[in-house]
Amino acid sequence: MPDEITVGDFLIGILPRLHGDTSFPWWPPDCFGLCLALLKRTGGYVQLLRDWPAASGRTLDSWTAEVRELGMKWRLDWSGFRALANEWQIVCNSFGLTLGQVSGEAKLCLALMTIAVVADEAFKGVVAPIDQVADVDDMLDEGSVCLTQSGTLCIHIDPSRLRVLPRMHTPQNGLTERSLSRYLSLCDASEVTPQWQFSQRLASLQAEEARLVGEVLAGVPEKASAPPEVQATVDVYLAWVENNKRLRLNREARHRSSRGR
Question: Suppose 209 and one of 59, 91, 182, 205 were both cysteines; which one would form an S-S bond, judging by CB atoms 3.0 to 4.6 Å apart?
Fold first, then answer.
């Protein structure tokens, strides 16, 4: 029966490396996907929020401030972030529980929710077009590469298991797992096969402008001198392409390094 599946079985089914390596998943969308998927499957967030914020042991203001602070720390040191080690250990210690038991385990549900919302906060601004972000950092750059190449923000969770995407709309009515985040959204693998556009700038081009951009990129001789607005769009696109190449090489180098440890 479904309720007899254990927490460990469920999470390993999403991230297979947890079978032999239960170290903290350092990439925020991976953590978000794991924890929110379990809360969604078990309905654990419902029991938790019936007594919120008292269930957190803090006031709403202090809880919010702590989440924002932890999210910023994760954003600045995403490969070395360890501030949620205790919460992750609670999750790992619960691998033997069945899914039917999760909603009754307030400590586990709180740990799952804490990890998910801090991961969400770490990705603040992920939906903003590149040319509208004041300070595009390495985390958002890496997320942009993941989206355009894989159609998901996750790095270690295969899209066939689940996807994490930027949230474009927060529900205004009711209370579901979708109400728990502001910047990230959990999608079942079968829901969508997204093709992400890197910037609204290209998406908003008129037909004639789009044709000119294509001709400039293709190097059509008679279009060597393009209107300033078209050339500006081309420059943004070419810079994005070069940045993606650099990020991809850096990511591959980090992955090779982590496998060698």
Answer: 205
